[in-house]
Amino acid sequence: MSDRFDRAAAELLALPDDELFARGDAACRAAFSDAVHVRGLIEASNACVRACAYCGIGRGNAGLPRYRLSDAEILGAARRGREAGLSSFVVQGAEDPEFGPLRLARLGEALRRELGGEVALTLSFGTMRRDDYAGLKAAGWDRYLLRFETSDPELHLALRGSPLSERLRALEDLRDLGYEVGSGFMTGLPGADEARLAADVALAARLGLDMAGIGPFIPHEATPLASAEGMGLRPALRAVAALRVLLPLANLPATTAAGSVAPDGRERSLAAGANVLMPNVGPAERKREYELYPGKICLDEDGMKCLGCLGLRVASVGKRLDFGRGDSPAYLARTGQEATA
Ligand code: SAH
Q: Could you tell me if the CB of 296 is within 6 A of ligand 1?
């Protein structure tokens, strides 16, 4: 049974690329002008207890050195990002028992003390109990990222070993609790076709997300999907453009995965409707070990150096970096708040 979101997504994805990307770009500029919001990403741990079939940091990858940042390292990275002018930070990690809800709550409080009330703090550590999400919100985290990964329930269960409904329940809890909510998906997972792409875009639109990350799946040799094909940048670009038209006020990142499958992948995402970049501001020596997929970009640079490079990249598509909090206008609208500069 298809609903209006399925029909709208299929209609958009039937457009020729040029027209679809132009529609995405126009919708993005209407909502955000030329601003590209910058989030400082800190990858806190790669010691995952899960074994998602696509993911290079799953517990099955025996060859990968495992690391955990200390709270002091995370605070230090955020402090340096703040000194460089950033006002929005994302702490992401493996599902790692050492980063349980209590520790993350203490970390949120410490980041708030360190950075003040003005910065946006986003967490991305997978599914948790509703009470835990509530405690984390009270501790100062105000946004949460949790991709649904694929809208196909059978594929989701096969790849992740847990049901799609669990991920969707978590997204509902986060929304109820007042978080600014981000989700999203990978394009080009095994069996990908046009119908699946439309269904993924439609689910993201139906969820009324405040933020949505869409990136190409990149096969990793130490995972069960080692011999999968991956489909490159194009499906991700089309999905970004279509979702921009359907969710004009959502924050949509130009993802690191897009920049890793094509040298200009992030610029092309920004020219098709994306409005966010998430440079890694964590310790340079750990970036390689957060090895979700091979070919990850910017591994050797210090995160602060990336800011100069990103400024040039966004200028190439007629945009500029914006170091404000970058609250999602979709979130402000649904919670009855006014946008502030
Ligand atoms: N543990 C957290 C964070 C996961 S890593 C969670 O489960 O939400 C962040 C994202 O990287 C994932 O949501 C997934 O969409 C993406 N990712 C993982 N493996 C990938 C791969 N091989 N290619 C591209 N993206 C991948």
A: no
3-state DSSP assignment of residue 321: strand
What are the residues whose beta carbons fall under 8 Å from the beta carbon of 33, sequence distance 6 or more? none
pLDDT band at 18 (very low <50, low <70, confident <90, very high): very high
User: In this model, does residue 341 exceed pLDDT 60?
Assistant: no
Helix pair angle (234-246, 4-13), 10° resolution: 130
Which atom of ligand 1 lies nearest, measured to the CA of 55? 19
3-state secondary structure of 44: strand
The more confidently predicted of residues 300 and 340 is 300
Q: Which residues contact 124 (CB under 8 A, 6 or more apart)?
A: 90, 91, 92, 93, 144, 145, 146, 182
Q: How far is the CA of 111 from the centre of ligand 1 (A)?
A: 24
Rounded to 5 degrees, φ, ψ at 139 are -80, -5
> Which residues lie below 8 Å from residue 85, measured CB to CB, with a gap of 6+?
323
CA distance readout (Å), 7 to 2, 187, 339 = 7, 19, 31
DSSP designation for 140: T
Both tokens assigned to 269 = 């995402």
* Three-state secondary-structure class, residue 185: strand
The Å distance, Cα 215 to ligand 1 centre, comes to 9
Tokens of residue 60, six digits: 């099955």
Look at ligand 1, atom 19, and give the residue with the nearest C-alpha. Answer: 55
Is residue 89 a contact partner of residue 40, using CB atoms and an 8 Å limit?
A: yes
Cα separation, 341 vs 322, in Å, equals: 10
* pTM as predicted: 0.97
Q: DSSP letter at 173?
A: H
